[in-house]
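Quick illustration for those who missed Monday's session on complexes.
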Amino acid sequence: MAPKNEEELTVALELLESVLEGTSDAILILDKNEDIIRINQSFEQMFGWSVRELQENELKTRIIIPSEHEKEVDGIIHHLKSGGSLPIHNTQRLRKSAEKIDVSISYSSIKDLEGEVIGFVLIYRDITRQKKVERALRESEAKYRVIAEHSTDLMVVLDTKGRVLYASPSHHYVLGFEVQYVHKHMLSHIHQEDIDRFIDTYKSAVIEKKSFKIDVRIKHANGSWIDIEMSGVPVINEKDEIESIVMIGRDMTKKKQAEEMMRKSEKLSVLGELAAGVAHEIRNPLTSLKGFAQLLKEAKDEMKMEYIDIMLSELDRINDIVGELMLVAKPQAVQYEYRNFNELLYSVVRLLDTQAIMKNIQIKCDIDSNLPPVYCVGNQMKQLFINLLKNSIEAMDNGGLIQLTAFYQNGNVRAILEDEGGGIPKDRLTTLGEPFYTTKEKGTGLGLMVCFSIVKEHRGSIQFFSEEGRGTRVEIQLPISADDRLT
Ligand code: ADP
Ligand code: MG
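Prediction with magnesium ion bound:
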C-alpha cells in the first residue's frame, strides 16, 4: 500500500527503521550500482565493518565475498537487475578478520513506480552454528556408518512399521544375499515357526519403547538355516517418540556347533563311566549263564526247563542293558517326537540302579503313571536325567535315598530329583552350568552345562536348590507339546 500523505510516510519509515534495527539478521540495501543506501547495526556486527569503512573501500560491500563466490554473485546481481529475486541461498562470507562464516542470504530487488529496478535488499543470517551441528552430526553418522559397514554382525535400522531403512553389507557375508534384497524381503527369510514370535516381540518393543533380544532362524541364500541372536534397541527422539529401531544380529551357528561338540564329548565321557558300570552289570549274568550252561550239560531233564528259564531271564537282562547303552551312544540326527515319558524315566533309572546299589543308595521313583507324551529328543532327555542322577549318586558317599518325582502340571511335565548328598555351596548355585567347574578328581565339569543346554533347547527350565550337608533338589519343567515350545 503506497503512503498517501506525509504522516503515513513518517509512520512507514519509522516502522521500517524498527524492523531494520530490531532484527538480528544483517540487512544491506544497495542501489543499482551496488553503492550502499543503508546497512543496519547487525550487519556491522556480523561482518565487523562500519558503513564508513565500506564506503571508503575500493571493493565496497563486495569485500565480504570470498573470491571463489564472486562469479556466483555476479550472476545473482544480473538476475536481480532483470527484476528477479532469490529467496534463500546458503553460502559463505568473510568477516573483516578474514574469518569465514556460513550465511543464508535472501535477495530481492527494489523497483520504482514504473517497475524499473533501482536497488537491492540483501538479508544475511548467520548459520555457522547450525552448520557446525550438521557437520558434527554428519561426522558421527559417518563414524557409525564405518562401524556398521565393516562389522560382521548384521545391522538393520527399521522404522516403527518394520520397513528397512538401512541394512549393513554384512548381510551378504552372513546370509549370502545382496543387501538391496534385505530391503524388500526382510521377513520372508525368517523361519515360519519363528516369525509370529518375532513380530510380536517387535510390536511390543515399539509400544513399550523397550529393547529386546530374540533368537530366530534365518534362511541363507543357499537354503540352509542360520541361527541368529538378535537384539533390538529403539532410538527415541527428544519428543519421546520412537524414531527407528536398530537391530543387531549375530550368527550363532558356530557357537551352537561348539556346544554340540561339547555335548558329544560329554556323551563320550559319560559313556566311558557307564561302560565300567555296564561291564560289571553284564559280568554277573554272564557268570551265571556260564554256570547254568555247565549245569545244563549234566542236568536231569526235569531240571533243564528250570535252568533254561533262568538263563533266558539273564539273557534278557543283558539285552536290556546293551540296548540301553546303544540308545545313548548311537549318534542320531536330532529328532523331536512325542515320547512316553514314564518309559523314558524308568529306563534311565534302570540304567543307573546298579551304580546306586553299589554305593548303598536307593533310587525311589514317584512317577505319575499317566504322564502325557512329551515332545522331545529322546536321547537328549535320557542324557539329561543320566547326568543329574549321576551327580546325585556321586554326591552321596554314605548311601541314602534319591527321590525322583514326576507329574503333569499346566502344559508341562515337572520332574523333581532330590538327593541326600553333600549339597552345593550357595555361591556356586548361581554359576552352575559353567563348563569345567568340577569338585571331583575325575570330573569333567561338563555334565550340568549339557543339562542346561538340553533344557534350553527344549524351551523348558531347570532350577537347583541346595543346602550344604543336607542335599540337593533339582526341579525341571518341560513343555509337553510342540506348540508350547515356541512361547
Ligand atoms: P562333574 O560331575 O564332572 O563334576 P557337572 O557339571 O556334572 O560336572 O557338575 C559340576 C559340579 O557341580 C560337580 O563337580 C559338583 O561339585 C556340583 N554338583 C552337581 N550336582 C550336584 C549334586 N546333586 N550334589 C552336590 N553337588 C553337585
Ligand atoms: Mg556330572
